[in-house]
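Please go through this protein, sequence plus structure tokens, and consider how the sequence yields the tokens. Keep your notes short.
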Amino acid sequence: MATLEQPVYQREIYSNLSATILPLFEENNHLWKIILHFGDMRKWDSLEELFDHLLHTSDDSYSVSLRKLYNLLL
């Protein structure tokens, strides 16, 4: 996580990350609903805090997939 927080573009890491999480979005296209809850990203102090919000606001159509995404990333 410390590497990703640096203001340097990490192409290899981002490519690997996207390849890892893409199957979750392909498995359940309702997972894209998380975008509706991002808002101003500056209000989240950490990825954990953002996920707390997302898990709290998720509905049954994607909550299991969101939990899988959380487990992959954190």
About this structure: The longest helix spans residues 11-27.
